[in-house]
Known about the structure:
Strand order of the largest sheet: 1-8-3-6-9
Structural class: alpha+beta
Low-confidence stretches: 1-16
CATH class of the largest domain: Mainly Beta
Largest sheet: 5 strands, antiparallel
Radius of gyration: 20 Å
Number of strands: 9
Order of helices and strands: HEEEEEEEEHHEHHHHHHHHH
CATH architecture of the largest domain: Sandwich
Strand content: 5-15%
Mean pLDDT: 84
CATH topology of the largest domain: Jelly Rolls
Helix content: 40-55%
Amino acid sequence: MLKDSEQRAGMNSHTELLRTLSGEQFIEVYSLEEAEGGIFDDYQRYDFHQVIWFMDAGKNNTYFLDFNEYTIQDNQVVVLFPGQIDMLDIRDKQGYVFAIHNDNFFNINQRLNSDLLNGYFSNVFISLPPDTKDTLQQLLQLMLKERDRNNRILLMESYMQAFLYHICSLFDSMDQSKNRNELAIGKLMRLIDTNFIHQRESDFYARQLGVSIRKLNETSTVRTGKTVKQHLQDRLILEIKKEIRLGQKSLKEIAFDLGFSEPAYFTRFFKQQTGTTPTEFRDQ
């Protein structure tokens, strides 16, 4: 999400966004204040991991993530996963964005093995207590110094692992009240996010979680207000909206890529779920 290869070599301009993975591993850091105005003004999607630290949320503290509206606060951190889509007005905000190549993120999570980093819980905004904030500030300074000098990936990964260790520790303390059913829902959401295009039957997810369809639907309905089928439909609609909003494919291409055998079925499904046709949503 950040700099090109020259910037990774040590340039001080951190305004160019990287939206797709390159072959080279990276952990990049840039401040929201240094970013060019308008780069977050429209929905954007990335295929690598990100961590955003909102130090000062500003007056307009609204953040759109996966088409949901969140109110951010000062000194909050959120982890973004590949494929998520966001929009943010950064003009009165202070903070930092960490862009992490998926291989580096995987290496870190192999050692930390956190439910948060595994993606079982997404769109979690973690507030930083003063002592953790001070520690993260020190780690941030180490990363910025390394970024502007040698930018050695092993050292950057080590600093990032320490940074995420403290974030995951805070998440785990938040998570102490969660019971087995809530953890199962987190795992269900991750399974759906990974498999929804090719696996649209509830029994697949029940088998993966080792429970009956009836039990899984009961747990899902109690905890989220929706059945597994409804979550699958919601995830499919979200993906359709993302693809339409990004404007890189025709409606026909989106339909076939998402497993619809006929464009007419694609249109009918979208209108049933949203009240508008894909064309109407695109034009809006």
